[in-house]
Every structure is written in C-alpha cells, then in structure tokens.
Amino acid sequence: VNRRLYAVHNVLDGVILEPIALGYRAVVPRPARSGVRNVLNNLNSPVVLANDVLQGSPKKAGVTIARFGINTTLGVAGLFDVADRMGLKWRNEDFGQTLGVWGAGEGPYLFIPLLGPTNVRDGFGRIVDFAFDPLNYATYDHDNTVNITRAALTAVDAREQLIEPVRDINATSSDPYAATKRIYTKSRRDDI
User: Fold this and answer.
1) Do the Cβ atoms of 49 and 65 come closer than 8 Å?
2) How far apart are CA 158 and CA 117, in angstroms?
3) By CB neighbour count within 10 A (0-12 exposed, 13-18 middle, 19+ buried), where does 14 fall?
4) How far apart are the first and last CA of the chain?
C-alpha cells in the first residue's frame, strides 16, 4: 500500500509540489526565503516549548523561550534569526519525538501523498502538535486566511528545501521508495 501511495505522491509532486517549490525558489530571493523560514520557525516556538517541557528539558525550554523573545522583538517578528547569532541555535521538537523520548514505539511506516513519510507515532504527534499551537485557537479578523497562508508557506518552504535531496534519491537509488523510508526512519531516530 505504501509503495502505491508513494507512486501517487510522486505523480502529484511532479505536477504540483515540485513546480511550486521551483517557482518559489526562482521568484523569491534566498534572503527572503530565509526570512520566511525564520518567521515560520518562530511561530512554531510554542509547540517546540511544549515538547521541551514534556521531554523534561528545562535548559532546552529556556533556549526556546529566549529565542522566541529575542527573535520576536529584535528579529522583527522572527524575520531575522538574531538569537542564532547569539549562540541560541534553532531546533525542532515535536510530539512524535516526545513520544519517542517517553519510549513509545514508531509503529508501522506510512507514506501519505502530499504529506510524505511518517509512522503511526509521528502521525499522532502531528495531531497533538496542532492542538499545542495557540494560533489555531486565536480568533481575529482573517484568522482563517492567516492559518491557511501559514500552512501553505510551511509546505512550500519544506518542499523547496527538499528539491535537491529528492532529486538525488530519484537519480541515484535503485529503489527510491526504500531509500526514502530508510532516510526518514533513521532521521527520526536520530532526532529522538
């Protein structure tokens, strides 16, 4: 089933995701793309903080709070990653990692078209992370537009970062599906 879904994804990726990512890269200069990524990372800080706390990492939680404060103020709402220049490195933490830290197994590997590789633990973690995000509860004028734009930018930014890795896997691997599964699984284990 996963191989079939992977094949469907490749068709959709070739028709939708990759062309959009290539267009984004062609139209938006690297510094602006970096600024978008910084803002998206900054907006994800509450989710990272919740997972730092749930993983019992007060030092990491402190870094996350400091990064958010510095980048929101000095970094102009996160557009510039001032905290990184101060030695406070960005890291991503999510509830899939938290469950892994707690000892939860991965469960079966899943490949979801347009979303990519995951496993049962990380898929459940994505749902919990959505619940952790305070922007999903905020109500203000055009809140749906903001949330949809954020989700779209997150997807385009993620795919833009994967242009070369995906091409390399497709060009050098005799079995791109197996290579994708292996890379995803190893990466997630390393994250935990």
Assistant:
1) yes
2) 13
3) exposed
4) 27
Residue 125 contacts residue 96 (beta carbons within 8 Å)? yes
> What is the distance between the alpha carbons of residues 41 and 59, in angstroms, rounded to a whole number?
19
Report the C-alpha gap between 92 and 69 in whole angstroms: 17
| 3-state SS track over the chain | CHHHHHHHHHHHHHHHHHHHHHHHHHHCCHHHHHHHHHHHHHHCHHHHHHHHHHCCCHHHHHHHHHHHHHHHHCCCCCCCCHHHHCCCCCCCCCHHHHHHHCCCCCCCEEEECCCEEEEHHHHHHHHHHHHHCHHHCCCCCCHHHHHHHHHHHHHHHHHHHCHHHHHHHHHHCCCHHHHHHHHHHHHHHHHC
What is the chain's Cα-based Rg? 17
What count of other Cβ atoms lies within 10 Å of the Cβ of residue 25? 16
Give the tens place of pLDDT for each residue, 145-183: 999 999 999 999 999 999 999 999 999 999 999 999 999
The model's pLDDT over 28-37, given as tens digits with 9 standing for 90+, comes to 999 999 999 9
**Residue owning tokens 């290539």:** 22
